[in-house]
């Protein structure tokens, strides 16, 4: 890390902490740095260190710094990041060690490639290494010693092999060997390879299994001398799959991604050096991944095989400036249209060979297990749960500690391992003694996995770069118990090649523990029969990860044990995993917080317990039968007694994210116990029915779609939650709604009235555009008034009278509360009620159509505040600009900016932020990747400067698009 320019060493963030009394296997994945002497040091065994991310350096160059070098060191920590880290991660007198592996995959430690080399002043050879993290490119200069490790030596081999003489696949005389015999998918891939060797246009069935086997067989051909280059042309949506998997199947092959056009001279130079041979004859050997529009290369270059991983009719409409010798179409719809035939003839391609294949679909049989905490766990969990209610407590930190208490045995006293770990160890031992199943335990906590590994004497794949160890463990897992000599040979071969590593390789090839954030390189667990999912994290893409990262379900069906601790947040996590939509971090935190603190969340299930023995578990549950229609079994384990739950139904209800956003937090809005008592007394005859309704409502929560909590969200809390909803008004939802005179509408009358009042969105849109546009000079951004008016005497005015038309019996205080909320909504989301991202049920009994009429009357009333009208018109104009892009497919005009990096894409991102978050919350826009990145690259350093620029940019956009809107209105009027 050492840099002669000490001024550049500024702390940007602190990621985690390490002390000599804790276990942390990732400790030696990073260097140790002494800022006092500006040098890297050997990692000491003792002390307290913090992992520092440096400003203007990639995360790949983080380093450990001793605590004494950080505390009070303004020179390297002018923004008090160390103090902030301690504050955010301290509970009482202890510092909670953030789990680095839960934030970052181990693959971040692997560079992308070597792009060039040079002779240094001391006559040594230096190499320029390209790193890519979150699509940010970093170039480092490394000496030959950097490539001593087996992991980084692969980079050097990629670099050296890329200039070898080209050997086409048509010149290869080898037959793929070493693959499983009598495997239908392998046989099919061999047929595809033979067709490519003949130079045919090969159209084959595309599936995940096929791709993985194709990659394996292509790599085998390349190890036998075939050089490529091969190009995979695919849609942008498939790029993440290739980024995650292509390197693992071609570990020492040169890989290049063509996903964008370099806009700066340095990036153009990097692209040229990593793509073209020095003799200008064409591409380097290896594999190129590209989208079709990126293959417009300046000159015609040689490509051995073009793999088209998309609809060929769409792909071949692009003119690839490359010479294809063989073409493989990876598309499962065998349709040869006239248009495609024309394009094939135009490109002078040969005949198409269709190779059909019927894939085998493997599936997961889930076995959900409900476990019960022991007394020590219960006490620790409840203590932490009580902390989360305190306003001064870091809620995310409390949630993290609650998850650890449910899983981490190092937190307990004595020999107590916790209910999860004890069950896993007991279950695996029993399965090992009675079956030949291969088992993988997947988890997120290093200490928990290490404990299981030690108790079962099995191997563990950790968060680190140790490719030889991972390859060796996977090779062992493939073997059966009879092949003991082969197992010994693999272990001895590993020790011979990697004797300098202190890895304790175990001969146990029946069980393996795996850190979910481990590297994908050389990871192949396709032999696994049973997965025990130890993770208690939100993971809606679990099955996708099982298939793509671990390569399971590619050769056999899979049993998955999902462990849930009763009466804990595990049940909430399970509920979240079953939602159809993916949640953001802020949404997850809010759901946990609301259900743990503000709701009477109903834990548990209903169903009949049927005790079973372990023999039944093995013989009946851990089997796949042809007539099996139920792929999910639910068990309850209590005091070593296993019971099958018949008629299992969860008590907690699950909603989609849209439904969650439309629900009202009943418990939060209803804090008046006296009101509850009053209702109970007034409705004794209907007590049972009311209580049932209340229970249904208690299950609902309110989730805000905003990404981060900050002062703007706090100020707008009333806007997002809405006016308090009293018990009497909620009871009306059960027994009927009010008409415009305040009387309860009977059920049949209510249906008729709803038919009259509820109109489609088209009507709402029409009513919202009747507000006239004020002169342009009056359109200015006006700050929202957050002053407290709770002590003011409310005097009824013309705006209050608007509500009297619809609910004449409503109190003036309630009307004023609604009016303030509506004015806030207008200022933020405009005059069209359908655009309001709030819970509109807070205005019951007013319907959405009536609410739109009220909004129009407020805006047309002379007493309406000018700032409300102005903001409404600003939002209308900016929304009009968005429609030009999305509905009319019209490019926005280029408006000059004072920010050098700001372009039209930034304006579009800004308009999207206004559409998502509304006006007046500029600080939220900084969370946008495009806006935040561009402003950081510009000369805007502080948050205040960035907000000031964005506000001025919004003013400019409003002015420019107001002119366009006026012009359009003139054209329409003619």
Which second-level CATH architecture of the largest domain applies?
A: 3-Layer(aba) Sandwich
- The tally of helices reads 37
- What is the CATH C level class of the largest domain, in words? Alpha Beta
Q: What share of residues are in beta strands?
A: 15-25%
Task: Outline the low-pLDDT stretches.
Answer: 2-6, 664-792
Helix- and strand-based class? alpha/beta
Say how many strands there are.
Answer: 28
What does this structure look like?
The structure is a single chain. The protein is 41% helix and 16% strand. With 974 residues, the protein is an alpha/beta fold. α15 runs antiparallel to α16 (484-497) and α29 (761-768) packs parallel to α32. The longest helix has 31 residues, at 943-973. The strands form six sheets. A nine-stranded mixed β-sheet has the order 20-21-19-22-23-18-25-26-24, sandwiched between helices. Strands 13-14-12-15-16-11-17 form a seven-stranded parallel β-sheet, covered by helices on one side. The chain has a five-stranded mixed β-sheet with strand order 1-4-5-2-3. The chain is globular and about 90 Å long. It starts with 10 loop residues before the first strand and ends with a helix. The chain contains 37 helices and 28 strands. The protein folds into five domains: 6-98, Beta Barrel (OB fold (Dihydrolipoamide Acetyltransferase, E2P)), CATH 2.40.50; 162-355, Tandem AAA-ATPase domain (Rossmann fold), CATH 3.40.50; 364-567 and 604-650, Rossmann fold; 659-871, no CATH class; 891-973, no CATH class.
């Amino acid at each position: 890390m050492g840099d002669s320019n000490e001024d550049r060493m500024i702390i940007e963030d602190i990621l985690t902490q390490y002390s000599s009394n804790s276990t942390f296997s990732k400790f030696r994945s990073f260097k140790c740095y002494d800022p006092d002497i500006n040098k890297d040091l050997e990692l000491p065994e003792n002390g307290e260190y913090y992992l520092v991310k440096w400003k203007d350096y990639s995360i790949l160059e983080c380093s450990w710094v001793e605590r004494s070098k950080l505390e009070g060191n303004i020179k390297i920590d002018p923004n008090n990041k160390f103090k902030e880290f301690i504050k955010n991660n301290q509970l009482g007198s202890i510092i909670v060690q953030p789990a680095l592996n839960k934030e970052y995959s181990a693959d971040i430690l692997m560079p992308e490639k070597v792009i060039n080399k040079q002779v240094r002043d001391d006559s040594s050879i230096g190499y320029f290494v390209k790193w890519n993290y979150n699509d940010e490119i970093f170039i480092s200069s490394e000496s030959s010693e950097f490539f001593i490790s087996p992991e980084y030596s692969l980079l050097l081999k990629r670099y050296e092999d890329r200039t070898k003489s080209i050997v086409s696949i048509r010149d290869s005389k080898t037959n793929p060997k070493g693959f499983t015999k009598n495997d239908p998918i392998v046989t099919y891939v061999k047929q595809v390879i033979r067709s490519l060797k003949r130079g045919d246009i090969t159209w084959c069935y595309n599936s995940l299994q096929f791709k993985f086997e194709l990659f394996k067989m292509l790599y085998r051909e390349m190890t036998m001398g075939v050089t490529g280059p091969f190009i995979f042309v695919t849609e942008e949506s498939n790029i993440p799959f290739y980024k995650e998997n292509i390197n693992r199947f071609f570990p020492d092959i040169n890989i290049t991604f063509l996903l964008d056009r370099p806009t700066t001279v340095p990036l153009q130079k990097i692209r040229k050096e990593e793509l073209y041979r020095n003799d200008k004859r064409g591409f380097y050997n290896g594999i190129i991944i590209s989208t079709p529009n990126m293959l417009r290369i300046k000159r015609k270059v040689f490509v051995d095989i073009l793999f088209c991983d998309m609809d060929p009719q769409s792909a071949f409409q692009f003119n690839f400036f490359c010479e294809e010798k063989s073409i493989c179409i990876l598309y499962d719809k065998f349709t040869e249209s006239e248009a495609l035939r024309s394009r094939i003839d135009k490109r002078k391609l040969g005949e198409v060979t269709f190779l059909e294949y019927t894939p085998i679909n493997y599936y997961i049989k889930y076995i959900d297990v409900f476990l019960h905490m022991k007394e020590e766990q219960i006490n620790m969990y409840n203590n932490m749960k009580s902390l989360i209610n305190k306003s001064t407590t870091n809620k995310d930190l409390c949630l993290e500690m609650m998850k650890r208490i449910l899983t981490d045995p190092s937190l307990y006293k004595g020999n107590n391992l916790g209910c999860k770990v004890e069950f896993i160890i007991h279950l695996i031992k029993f399965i090992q003694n009675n079956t030949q199943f291969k088992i993988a335990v997947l988890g997120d906590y290093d200490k928990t996995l290490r404990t299981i590994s030690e108790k079962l004497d099995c191997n563990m794949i950790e968060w680190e770069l140790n490719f030889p160890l991972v390859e060796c463990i996977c090779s062992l897992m493939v073997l059966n118990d009879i092949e003991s000599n082969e197992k010994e040979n693999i272990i001895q071969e590993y020790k011979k090649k990697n004797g300098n590593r202190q890895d304790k390789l175990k001969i146990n090839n029946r069980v393996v523990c795996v850190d979910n954030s481990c590297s994908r390189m050389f990871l192949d667990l396709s032999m696994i029969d049973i997965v025990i999912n130890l993770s208690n994290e939100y993971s809606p893409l679990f099955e996708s990860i099982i298939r793509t990262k671990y390569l399971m379900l590619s050769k056999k069906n899979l049993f998955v044990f999902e462990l849930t601790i009763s009466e804990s947040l595990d049940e909430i996590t399970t509920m979240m995993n079953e939602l159809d939509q993916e949640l953001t971090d802020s949404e997850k935190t809010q759901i946990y917080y609301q259900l743990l603190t503000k709701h009477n969340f109903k834990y548990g299930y209903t169903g009949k317990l049927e005790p079973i023995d372990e023999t039944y578990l093995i013989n009946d549950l851990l089997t796949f039968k042809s007539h099996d229609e139920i792929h999910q079994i639910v068990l309850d384990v209590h005091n070593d007694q296993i019971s099958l739950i018949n008629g299992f139904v969860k008590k907690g209800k699950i909603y989609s994210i849209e439904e969650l956003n439309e629900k009202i937090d009943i418990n939060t809005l209803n804090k008046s116990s006296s009101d509850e008592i009053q209702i109970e007394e007034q409705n004794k005859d209907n007590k049972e029915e009311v209580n049932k309704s209340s229970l249904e409502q208690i299950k609902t929560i309110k989730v805000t779609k905003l990404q981060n909590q900050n002062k703007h969200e706090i100020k707008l809390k009333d806007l997002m939650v809405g006016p308090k909803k009293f018990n009497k008004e909620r009871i009306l939802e059960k027994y009927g709604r009010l008409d415009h005179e305040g009387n309860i509408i009977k059920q049949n009358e209510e249906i008729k009235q709803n038919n009259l009042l509820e109109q489609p969105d088209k009507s709402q849109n029409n009513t919202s555009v009747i507000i006239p546009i004020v002169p342009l000079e009056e359109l200015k951004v006006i700050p929202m008034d957050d002053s407290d008016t709770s002590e003011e005497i409310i005097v009824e005015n013309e705006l209050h009278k608007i509500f009297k038309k619809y609910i004449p019996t409503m109190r003036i205080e309630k009307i004023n509360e609604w009016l303030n909320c509506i004015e806030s909504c207008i200022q933020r989301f405009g005059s069209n009620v359908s655009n309001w991202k709030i819970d509109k049920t807070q205005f019951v009994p007013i319907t959405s159509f009536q609410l739109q009429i009220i909004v129009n009357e407020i805006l047309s009333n002379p007493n309406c505040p000018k700032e409300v009208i102005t903001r409404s018109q600003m939002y209308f104009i900016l929304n009009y600009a968005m429609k030009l892009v999305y509905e009319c497919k019209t490019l926005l005009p280029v408006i000059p900016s004072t920010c050098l990096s700001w372009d039209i894409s930034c304006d579009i991102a800004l308009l999207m932020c206004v559409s998502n978050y509304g006006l007046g919350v500029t600080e939220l826009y900084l969370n946008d990747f495009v806006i935040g990145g561009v402003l950081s690259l510009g000369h805007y350093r502080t948050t205040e400067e960035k907000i000031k620029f964005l506000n001025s940019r919004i003013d400019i956009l409003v002015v420019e698009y107001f002119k366009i809107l006026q012009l359009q209105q003139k054209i329409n009027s003619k």
